[in-house]
Structures are given as C-alpha cells and as structure tokens.
Amino acid sequence: MMKPVPKLSVVISVTFVFCLFLLFQLHVSNLFGKNPQITHQVNNFFISFASSSHHQTQNLTRLTNESDGNRAKHPEEEDTCAGRYIYMHNIPSTFNDDIIKDCRALIKWFTMCPFMVNSGLGPQVSETDNKTTSHVLTSKTGSWYATNQFLLAVIFRERMKHYECLTNDSSLASAFYVPYYPGFDVSRHLWGYNTTVRDELGIKLAKWLRERPEWRKMNGRDHFFVTGRIGWDFRRGLDDDSEWGSKLMMLPEFSKMTMLSIETTAWTNEFAVPYPTYFHPKSLSEVRRWQMKVRSVKRKYLFSFVGAPRPQMDGSIRGEIIKQCLASHGRCKFLDCNKGQDCDNPVKVMEVFQRSVFCLQPRGDSYTRRSIFDSILAGCIPVFFHPGSGYNQYMWYFPKDYTKYSVYIPESGMKNGMVSLRNLLGKIDWVSIMRMRKEVVELIPKIIYTKPGLVGPEKIEDAFEIAVDRVIERVAMVKRMMETGKDLQSEYSQTRDLKKLE
Predict the structure, then answer these.
(1) Global pTM?
(2) What integer pLDDT is reported at residue 233 of this predicted model?
(3) What's the start-to-end Cα distance of the chain, in Å?
(4) For residues 258 and 247, is the Cβ–Cβ distance under 8 A?
(5) Which residues partner with 383 through β-bridges?
(6) CB 10 within 8 A of CB 57
(7) Least confident residue range of 297-311, 384-398, 432-446, 475-489
(8) Which has more confidence, 83 or 16?
(9) By C-alpha distance, which of 242, 263, 228, 259 is closest to 364?
(10) d(CA 497, CA 493)
(11) 305: part of which helix (H) or strand (E)?
C-alpha cells in the first residue's frame, strides 16, 4: 500500500516545477520569439502539468484528512430522525420537580419517598435479600427494581431526556412533549381539598402552553403528556368538592392534547400505555436471556391469583376467584395481599407468576391492574374477566385477536358460579397453551420500560418507543385531517366500548 506523500514535499515539488517553467519561458521567448504558435503549445504543456500537480496535491490532502478521521458528511446522507423529532417543553419546575419534592405528601396512605430513587425506577432488587433458592430473577446486571405503579410520568420524562430524536429546534418537531406530573399533582389533593386547589396547577399550565409559539402550530393538537394514574382521575364533570379528581382533561387546551395513561377512558385523545414493571434491562441481549428463562421454566400451578378481596365493591368476583383457588387442591396459588408484605416484594410476586400457567386478572379498583404486566413479564398467560381490563385498553401493544395470548371468561359466569376455573382452564390442550405462551413471551419487550440511553443494535423497541412512534403517527394523521378540512372527532376516534367484547 502506498504511503501518502507529505503535504510539504508536494508543495515544494510544484514550486520547483513552476520556477523551471518561468526560466524556460524566458529561454523559449528568446529562441522562438518569432513563432507564437510554438510558444503557445509549450505554455499549454506547462499549464497542464501545473494543474495536474495542483489536483494531485488536493487529492492527497483529502486522503490525509480522511485518514485522520475528519471525513465530511455527504449532504445526501439520510436523516434517520426525519419525521420523528420530539420537542420537549422546558416548563417551570412548579409543574414537575417541585411537585415531587415533598414525596411524603403525594399519596395519603403511604410515602412515595423510597420509590423516587434511580430516576423513578425505585430501589434495586437483590435476590440475595430474599429467602429463596429458586433464582427467580437470575439477573446480576442490576436491572430489577421495586418500581411503583404510579411513577410512569417520572420514568417517561427521564427516557425522553435520552430520546435519540429529541430536538431543541421546535421547527423540526413532529410532536411536542409536555413533562408535567398530573398524577402526583392530583393525588396529593384528592382527600381534604376543594376543587379549586385540585385544578389550580392544570389551569396555570394551560395558560403557559397557550402563550407559547409552538402551541399555535396546531393549536395544541400536536402536544402530548403522560400521567401515572387512570384517565378517570382527570375528568371531573362538576365543580363539587364531593366529586372525584380534577377537571384537567375538560380544560379546552388539554382536551386537544394527547394523554398517555396507565388506563384510558373511552375518549378519543386518551391512549393506554403499560404500567411500569420491575424489569428495566440495559440491553436487548438481556431481554432475550430473560425470555429464554420464562419460556422454559417449570410451572407448578395451573393458575394463580395475586391480590386481595374487595368485599366493599358491589359485583366484585374476587371473592369467588379466591374461593375456587383455595378449593383447587393445590392446582392454584393464592398470594393474599391483605397479609404480610409479600405483594410488595418483586421476588415473591414474580415467583408466583413464573410458577403458574395462567394468571387471573379480575378488575381492581378500576378496570386494569399493574399485575397484568407483571404476569406477562413472567410468561404467564393472563385470564381476563372484562374487556376493559386489556382488550379495549392497550391497543398499541396487545394483538387484536385476544385468543392469541389470553383467555377470556365473562364476569357473569363467575358471579353465578357456573364457571369452574379449574375445569375450564384444565381442559385447554397443551398445544394451545404453548402457542399462547409463545405469544405472551414475545410481548415482553413491548411492555417494559428500559433504562435510558440505549441506542444502536442493543436498542429495544419497548413501551416508551412504541408510545412515541404512535403519538407521532397520530399527530401526522390529525394534521392531514386539518389540512383537508375533515371532522377530527369522527375521523380519528377509536371505539373503545368498555362494557362489551366485540
């Protein structure tokens, strides 16, 4: 391989040739002074030679620069973020960081302070701290955390800070993210506060956004935010202190924005995203190893239920589920969340789900439960009793054909005692079980929130990435409708009937 000629030696060579050219010109002029044609030909020869030397010098300089790692970007190179840029509003801290400073007051019944560490992921979980020899987690990479179900807004904001297509140029943005913590804003004021206090911060943020130049681009329809609570907490219809929640989504500004929540109502600008689980891996290979584990683990129980009875709830089927589980002669495992602290222990919870073929997911205080995603993470097939618990919620994440990954048993069958869980689930053939489990295991990357900063081949298309992509797609669709004058309400609405299964 030829070594590049040093720049200085090339310059000296060209200079030397040019000097010879001048001397020769003088001699030629004296010798052929009366024949300009010959003089012109000689001149052309030296000019051509000098030009060739100059271009060679430029080429050598370019090669040297490239060998030094200074290769320039070609203008025709594709922008991989084109159409995917997100602009994150720099809202005042009173709308996020200041809210969670007093972590003891965020929820009335317990303190959230222990869960605020590690950017909202919570404290790391060590299997050695638990009295188990079954190696439930089998991860020495520090990817398991005691994550609280209400911390999604904090987790999402941290992920957005590391989003590969985050931009400071709002003119490039396809969507605008508002890093507000509405879940904690409302939860700290749910008991003992009037509606004015509950609504105050949301009204102030609406005014702040309305005055931003970015808002005028699509009058807020290209803006989105995330909440760690269910959608109903933000749709109070009356200004009565006895009514639940805030009226955030009833404000004109927020009624145009897209809200991502752990459980949605049937409104057109709300979309459900997964509850945060305990698993926050750092690489795709780590996810693959976990999938291999839960795919092959031995499952002792036919079905299980992790939860507590709801005697105060009219129509709850939990009592019947618990009764049948306890009478199953060892075919069912019941982890009673009213006793001890086992349900707050990720290892204990994951151990039950890993050892079960089917995991029962009746309604909780609302339609959905965090347990749905913990069980899927363990490779356990979810059993739903109401379409609003999963099928009409997580449309961006779950297959449309619910029979691929779950079992559906109508609540009515459980209420009248006609359905025997042991008999019904026991009759499902092994081929169908393996098919459903395969689908459940393949869902795992989609329903977890990975650690911030993953890029390149180890990047995971997780719940965060899917949510951002779908928001961008939705904004693009709304923009097209606005440009063509179509009715937004009728065109981009999604039918989500929470009362019947279609």
Answers:
(1) 0.82
(2) 97
(3) 70
(4) no
(5) 360, 407
(6) yes
(7) 475-489
(8) 83
(9) 263
(10) 12
(11) strand 301-307
Q: What CA–CA distance (Å, rounded) separates 496 from 502?
A: 10
Beta bridge partners of 263: 230
Instruction: Please state the domain extents for the chain.
Output: 86-276+463-491, 284-447
Per the CB < 8 A criterion, the answer to whether 13 and 53 are in contact is yes
pLDDT of residue 130 exceeding 50, the answer is yes
Note the Cα 252 to chain centre separation in Å.
27
Tokens of 304: 């299980």
String of DSSP letters for 6-42: PHHHHHHHHHHHHHHHHHHHHHHHHHSTT-HHHHHHH
CA–CA gap between residue 244 and residue 387 (Å, rounded): 24
b/e sequence 387-413, b meaning 16+ C-beta within 10 Å: bbbbbbbbebbbeeebeebbbbbebeb
Owner of token pair 């689980």: 277
Give the span between the Cα atoms of 437 and 295, in whole angstroms.
7
Per DSSP, the three-state class of 263 is: strand
Residue corresponding to tokens 């869980």: 421
Q: Give every CB contact of residue 261 below 8 A, 6+ residues apart in sequence.
A: 226, 227, 228, 229, 230, 231, 270, 271, 272, 273
DSSP 486: -
Are the C-beta atoms of residues 231 and 263 closer than 8 Å to each other?
yes
| 3-state SS, residue 270 | strand
Q: Shortest CA distance to 347 belongs to which of 374, 309, 326?
A: 374
Mean pLDDT for 259-267 is 93
- Average pLDDT over every residue of 136-152: 87
User: For the chain, how many residues are written?
Assistant: 502
CA distances from 378 to 353, 366, 398 (A): 6, 23, 16
Structure tokens at 393: 């919620």
Which candidate, 227, 245, 243, places its Cα nearest to that of 235?
245
Residues 3-53: tens digit of each pLDDT: 444 444 444 454 444 444 444 443 434 433 334 343 344 344 333 433 444
Half-sphere exposure for 208 (CA within 13 Å, toward CB) = 15
Round to whole Å and give the CA distance between 432 and 161. 42
Position 487 scores a pLDDT of 63
Q: CA-CA distance, 297 to 393, in Å (whole number)? A: 29
For domain 284-447, the CATH architecture is 3-Layer(aba) Sandwich (3.40)
- What is the C-alpha to C-alpha distance for residues 95 and 103, in angstroms, rounded to an integer? 14
Q: What number is the average pLDDT over the span 426-453?
A: 96
pLDDT of residue 489: 58
- State phi, psi for 465 to the nearest 5 degrees: -60, -40
Q: What is the dihedral of CA 487, 492, 498, 502, to 10 degrees?
A: 110
